[in-house]
Amino acid sequence: MKEKEDLIREIDKILGIPEMTTDIELKKIFSASKIAIEENQVQAISQLSHSLSLYLMTHHYKAPKNVIEFATKIANKYHRERGKISTLNMLAMSLQTLK
User: Fold this and answer.
1) What is the pLDDT of residues 31-51, one digit of tens each?
2) pTM for the full model?
3) Cα angle vertex 48, ends 45, 54, to 5°?
4) Are 20 and 27 in contact (CB under 8 A)?
């Protein structure tokens, strides 16, 4: 739960920066993600990571420094989690072939 609360706090901090008032698209990404995380939606973090990556690519990485740092952090977290899952999947597949 602490991790979720920390993530929501970071999103709130980003939503509070002055640049967010003029960038409606970016504000929409963070607002929707905050709601999804609060509702414990399964793919909320991966969707946030994907949306931020797409936004940064289409805007040639022109975004507030806080947003770029947050996007990097969230992408690293997402890839670590994906790595754990893929390791478990490989182990399960290996065990299944032993039958």
Assistant:
1) 999 999 999 988 888 899 999
2) 0.76
3) 145
4) yes
